[in-house]
Amino acid sequence: TYERDDENVAEQKQETIRCLGTDESVPKYLRMRGKVRNRHLGKREIEMFVRDVWSHRLEMMRNKGKEERARMDPGNLARTVSSVERGATIGIKYEKNFEDFFHLYMNKRFGVQKVAIEYAYNVRDALHRFEYDSDCELFLNVFDGHVPESLYHDQLRVLAALKTDLLNIDALQPERLRGKIDSHDFMLVVERRFPAKSSSAMKALKAAFLKSFADSRVDYRAVFEENKFGDQTDFVELLRDQHLHEFLEYKEALGKSFNALGAPDSLVTFEQLRTAILEVDPEKPETGVFSYLK
Q1: 226 by DSSP, 3-state: which?
Q2: Rounded CA gap, 282 and 280, in Å?
């Protein structure tokens, strides 16, 4: 990854954006010298762009999954569309690495590499300006290489699991009451789903929830809806923001624990690494520790 260059973030009135150069530490989709035109992308435009990127990425991964299942069952091969041939909806071949995928996506979408890189810089600029939004902040961190792409997919799973919990609670009610649940029950579900959250984090979630849903009974499905600008409710925005920052804090703590083992070029044992992980996360099961070390 490369370090963020705050001076490179264009203000709304600035007409150009300075490029980061062509060093290998710079992602492929940003490798250019000089300056590019500032298109001053708006929030709705960047939200739609981010959504389109993730849509293509998910479609690509689904197609790759179909291809892998077909390999396990040759009888279905003829009925399965190869992800290499089909790719996502704009015809990108499968790439495991997000940087390679995004590089291909931009070149396919804009046709000319110079135009693709110019737009990529404008995307980065807009992501910085709208970093208060959870979609933009997460994509910016993936875009800059500070967090893995898998964090986005994990957020989807977290939200889906919470929705399922709420649906299950709703299903236990008499039919005439379904569609809404007590606000108190809503927060109890949240607390059970996220038992590791600190009391301050949970208190902030409750405040964000009550800010938008003050009634004693709430349509829990509305909690997950978006407005025309792509903004989610304060509760979901905060939940996603906490998810990202909990990961960043965990990553930083692991880094400090690993650095305490010695110089970067020194050899350390498996047991030393295991101890370093458990110092940060003492309740992590052995299978989880092993997954970090394999």
Answers
A1: strand
A2: 6
Task: Give the total residue count for the chain.
Answer: 294
**CB of 187 closer than 8 Å to CB of 206:** yes
Count Cα neighbours of 268 within 13 Å in the Cβ-side half-sphere.
17
Residue 294: what residue type? K
**Structure confidence at residue 257 (pLDDT):** 79
**Cβ neighbours of residue 206 under 8 Å, at least 6 residues apart?**
187
Return the SS3 of 24.
coil
C-alpha separations of 276 from 118, 257, 269 in Å? 42, 5, 11
Average pLDDT over residues 176-205: 94
Is residue 63 scored above 90 in pLDDT? Answer: no
Tokens of 177: 């009451």
pLDDT of residue 294 exceeding 60? no
Long-range contacts made by residues 152-155, C-beta under 8 angstroms, separation at least 24?
152/54, 154/243, 155/240, 155/243, 155/244
Contact 91, 108 (CB under 8 A): yes
User: What is the dihedral sign for C-alpha 125, 129, 130, 131?
Assistant: positive
User: How many percent of the chain have pLDDT more than 70?
Assistant: 79
Please state whether the predicted TM-score (pTM) of the whole model is above 0.85: no
Q: Tell whether the model's pLDDT for residue 82 goes beyond 60.
A: no
Return the ∠ at Cα 152 (arms to 147 and 158), rounded to 5°. Answer: 125
Helix extents (H) in the chain: 43-72, 83-86, 98-110, 113-129, 134-143, 150-171, 183-193, 199-212, 234-259, 270-280, 286-293
Task: Quote the CA–CA distance of 83 and 96 in Å, as a whole number.
Answer: 12
Compute the distance between CA of residue 259 and CA of residue 123 in angstroms, rounded to an integer.
34
- Supply the pLDDT for residue 75: 54
